[in-house]
What we know:
Radius of gyration: 27 Å
CATH architecture of the domain at 4-63 and 197-270: 3-Layer(aba) Sandwich
Number of strands: 8
Number of helices: 19
CATH topology of the domain at 4-63 and 197-270: Rossmann fold
Mean pLDDT: 83
Structural class: alpha/beta
CATH class of the domain at 4-63 and 197-270: Alpha Beta
Amino acid sequence: MNSFLHQVARHIKEKYGKDLAHVAVVFPNKRAALFLNQALAQLSDGPLWSPAYITISELFRNHSDLTVADPILTIAELHKSYVKITGRNESFEQFYPWGQLLLSDYDDIDKNLVDAQKVFRNLRDYHEYDDVEFLDEEQRAMLKRFFAHFVDDNSLLQHRFLELWSHLYDIYVDFRQRLRGQGLAYEGMLYRDVAEQQHLDFQHTHYLFVGFNMVHPVEQRLFTLLKKQGKAAFYWDFDNFYLGEESALFIRQYLTLFPNEFDNNDRSLYDNYSRRKDITFMAAPTESIQAHYVTEWLREHDRIAAGNRTAIVMCDEHLLPTIIHCIPPEVERYNVTTGYPLSETPVAALIELLMAFRDNGYVKRQNAYRLHDINLLLRHPYSLLLSPQVP
């Protein structure tokens, strides 16, 4: 049975031929490009001019003069706007968790092309928000930590919450102006700017949107523009089992607005849910045992030889370092798509040891450092790089 991307590759080759230099294939993320390129190579009996592979994010960024800022820098600029508009002096550390939520809200507003002023209308105009009882305990606790100095009184919490809400649109406007003045943007802001432009100069003749199943309104607007110019084709990724469900409302809309290049009733593509699957359940009392089972699992049924057709999917990404250590030595190459957390690197471990040594290693009354803390530092593998004399 051929995969979805193999079918896409076959269709591209049949429709556009071997010279694909004028074609751009747009994916939701970067991962799929590798497999589509391999499928095109397998189907070709000679040299093939590869299409351009870009993500939807890159497509938007290529048509903007703005640059998406680093997340911490973005929230730092948001904090400046918050302090300016509200006159409050919450520290950046205190503001940061709320800043993340607020940035996420602003990003959603722009990606959904919503009128921000209407969204952030004063909550006092809404009867259902006459109090803060609609917030759960965790959300109320976060509010209290953010607003700090007040007693456990919902009326005061309500007052401070409404006061903050009444400023959110002004913060939104000032924040966007502040970023734009530096040539920066958050992703939703950049997307909206591009989608609202009257004229866009598209570099390629054909744009093939492959593997999408969730599309923001701002992306739909770009799809519509390319479709009107006769430059867009769509290869949707969905399953027929869900099409009759309420949750598939948007998929049905997408298929109507942006018709699929494939037959929506093709069972080989869109009937995966009902296809027989081979699933084995293994009981493991601890996460560590789960990770160590990877060694045995990979050595079974030629899974190592299967190469990129073998995948390890983690429910908890914190297991990644342990799983990496459990991959057997005969696996020469593997790809980590989640990224490797900086906090799990040897450098981070060394920094933690140095900080602990500074805070706890020195005994003032003895005017000496603890031998235990010294040994922990000396045993770190990077200590050899710092001093050749380390035993």
